[in-house]
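Hey L., structure's done. Input below.
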Amino acid sequence: MDLTRHLTRTIAGLALLPLLAAGCAGDDIDRGGGGTYGQGEGSSPDASEHDDGGTADAQAKLADVKEEFEPYSDGAAAVTYDEDAVPAGAQVELAVSSEGADGDADDQDGGDGDDQDGGDGDDQDGGDGGTEFSLRVVGLMPDRDYGAHMHTGACGEKPGDSGPHYQDEKDPEQPSTDPKYANDDNEVWLDFTTDSDGNADSDADVDWAPRPGEMKSLVIHDEHTKTGEGEAGSAGDRLACVNVKL
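Output:
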């Protein structure tokens, strides 16, 4: 009987060895392979979503205009007043983005009573963050200088219908030609020079946000913007206008 029990136990023990070995190997695969899989399959999508979310938080799109210039008509979104300099069919793109995350950081760093007590109308309108303007034109006159500014009025039948330049701090004297007010910190200047194909890109960054409903158009001018006393902000004739809703 003792011999029979011994043989039975030995056989049972030998039968368990493959199962134990498989179990140990399975644990190693799950831990090693599972860790790698988690990084390759699980972590990457999360990281991408986080990056996209961070970008969206940091830079909210305020306007995105893509139009073709045409002679004035009711409802025209992009108007050319000079088809030699800005031909009908030429294209314009303007993106306006809020850099609100920078403003949030500023508030956290200096979040004292200054914003509440000393904040002007611009801060109340979101001026605690900056604004980025990105312009692209395609098909204008090649190798030519142009001026470009954001204006307060919508495009109309006449070039002057778009009103004066938008200013963060308004010059009490109009038309504004004082460099104190007519400058690329207080206004949005997007001057550019086209290449041999008539294309160009231009960017401008300001540390304030436009007041809602007061910046209504982009105007393309005949020459680069002047900066001297008594002529600051002037850039020659208005060649074209693009409606922008902010």
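DSSP finds four helices and nine strands in the chain. Confidence is low (pLDDT under 50) at residues 1-8, 10-57, 101-127.

-- N.
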